[in-house]
Amino acid sequence: MTKISQKDINDAVWKACDTFRGSIDPSVYKDYVLTMLFLKYLSDVHDDKMEDYLNKYNGDSDRAKRAMQHERFFVPEHSHFTFLYEHRNEANIGELINIALTDLEEANRNKLYSEDGAGIFQNIDFNNSKLGEPKDKNQRLKTLLIDFNSEKLDLRPSHVGGADIIGGAYEFLIANFASDAGKKAGEFYTPNEVSALLAKLTQSKPGSRICDPTCGSGSLLIKAGREVGSDNFSLYGQEANGSTWALAVMNMFLHGFDNATIRWGDTIRNPKLKEGDALMKFDTVVANPPFSLDKWGKVEDKDGDKTTVSYDPESDKYNRFWRGVPPKSKGDWAFISHMIETLNEHGKAGVVVPHGVLFRGSSEGKIRQKTIHENLLEAVIGLPANLFFGTGIPAAIMVFNKAKVSEHVLFIDASQHFESAKNQNKLRDSDIEHIVSAYREFGKGKMKPGVVEEKYAYVASYKEIEENDFNLNIPRYVDTFEEEAEVDIDGVQKEIDQLENELVKVHKEIDHYLNQLLK
User: Fold this and answer.
1) How far apart are CA 519 and CA 514, in angstroms?
2) Which of 411, 414, 202 is CA-nearest to residue 288?
3) Do 399 and 378 contact (CB within 8 A), yes or no?
4) Four-CA torsion 384, 388, 389, 394, nearest 10 degrees
5) What whole-number distance in Å separates Cα of residue 90 and Cα of residue 397?
6) Alpha carbon separation from 359 to 218, 362, 382, 474 (Å, rounded)
7) Can you say whether the dihedral through the CA atoms of 33, 34, 39, 41 is positive or negative?
8) What is the dihedral of CA 29, 31, 35, 37, to 10 degrees?
């Protein structure tokens, strides 16, 4: 049997999207395609295992079914992809898919439900009017089922060549949906190259607990796990958006991370990753939080009622904001404060931030000063513009380290090191390696303050940062000034004289042609 390749499955699932293109926004139809991929995967894994047990028990279906009760997932007969495919022409096919998903959740409640009792499919409705009028909707769902019934989407483990093909296809879809979805993409996806860079900068050791408190679809969290180099790590994430949380849960299973803990809820107002009444501590925390989130904190239960407050960062029961409370219109330092407070005694955090985080004053300036004074900030890395979906502004990465070995801070200006693309710039492997190698060399603790690499890397002492009023704006430390070339006055004058002579000739020719026309 020919093994299915990564390209085969990528091409097949991308073709399945043709069912919706042009009539439904990618930010909407991505959930339908990704959910169908997940259902097809569970169904095919179920069939593969069932076949193994039937062979083992000489065709005894009762024994095989009993054995299947102990597998990763139990797939009820009417929740199986094949059942839905066989009923693809039914007038209520959308309703049948909804029932299939609900019963699949119920049959695997311990895996597909949140701790609050929410199922991962609760925000997806295959009977929704968003899919068009009943006739159009049924045709789209029928076509989707036909597309996923393709031989190229036989996802049985015995048919899939190589490791992590299914997870790779899921990542491929998410990346392409993010590219199509424009501004809405930032809600669920961090570009692959940025995730890879963050994972390498915060590389975890075997046995680590790794967390992303704003995990989106989980791609960054998975990258951080892969960077360990073994299977000895545990993944934890939290996501505020219900649909995106469901994507993250599915992403973990499709990558084989069945034991990952992904919680649904607002990380700031209601952190779910806890041990008892205390916040859980981690070896590594990575995140690409929403940039400068407005209204991130205080919540009054009733409009105009100032006496009833459901959450107030001033009295945060986990004391995450003891360095200061960020402004209500910019939540960047709220997420950073949360990340730092969830690090264990030797933990490291890497976070993507807008540049304003590096230099804005007022309460943010005070928090930044205290963080630097604690000697937690290890590196500030400026990234190229137009790397992220939905925003063209350049961002930076800040690395915080509880086990930092020097009192200095490394500044890297990588803003001019990228591959230019039509819609979005990309970090090349060489660009990532350049940043990571400079950071790791600094991490040995032997670099003295001063220029490390002209127009690229600089090590600043605490005193120098203090003299700059704790302003971390990268140009204050990395000098990228390019002197303008000297102007050749004589050469410029000669060029001007030549142009004027040519202009005189042109005027004479124009006068000549005008005179000819007037005769």
Assistant:
1) 9
2) 202
3) yes
4) -60
5) 52
6) 30, 10, 13, 9
7) positive
8) 60
Q: Which two tokens stand for residue 250?
A: 């599915």
Which pTM value belongs to this model? 0.88
Task: Please report, in angstroms and rounded to a whole number, the separation of the first and last CA atoms in the chain.
Answer: 88
Instruction: Look at residues 408, 340, 410, 401 and name the one whose alpha carbon lies nearest to residue 381.
Output: 410
Q: Are 199 and 37 in contact (CB under 8 A)?
A: no
Residue 285's nearest CA partner among 369, 241, 341 is: 341
C-alpha dihedral over 7, 11, 14, 19, to 10 degrees? -160
Question: d(Cα 288, Cα 387) in Å, to the nearest integer?
Answer: 13
152 phi, psi to nearest 5 deg: -75, -10
Q: How many CB atoms lie within 10 A of CB 466?
A: 13
CA distance 55 to 48: 11
**Pick from 167, 171, 138, 152: which is nearest to 19 by CA?**
138
Beta bridge partners of 233: 208
Cα–Cα distance, 129 to 519 (Å, whole number):
75
| Strand bridging mode 409-413 / 377-382 | parallel
User: Residue-wise pLDDT tens for the chain (519 aa)?
Assistant: 567 888 888 888 888 888 888 888 887 888 899 999 999 999 999 999 999 999 999 999 999 999 998 899 999 999 999 999 999 999 999 999 999 999 999 999 999 998 888 899 999 999 998 888 999 999 999 999 999 998 888 888 888 865 568 888 888 888 887 776 655 545 567 888 999 999 999 999 999 999 999 999 899 999 999 999 999 999 999 999 998 899 999 999 989 899 999 999 999 999 999 999 999 999 999 999 999 999 999 887 666 566 667 899 999 999 999 999 999 999 999 999 999 999 999 999 999 999 999 999 999 999 999 999 999 999 999 999 988 876 778 899 999 999 999 999 999 999 999 998 777 889 999 999 999 999 999 999 889 999 999 999 999 999 999 999 999 999 999 987 666 667 778 888 888 888 888 888 888 888 878 887 776
Read out DSSP for 198-251? Answer: HHHHT-PPTTEEEEETT-TTSHHHHHHHHTTSSS-EEEEEEESSHHHHHHHHHH
Identity of the amino acid at 22: G
CB atoms within 10 A of CB 350: 27
Nearest C-alpha neighbor of 411 from the set 385, 386, 373, 447: 447
Q: Return d(Cα 34, Cα 121) in angstroms, integer.
A: 11
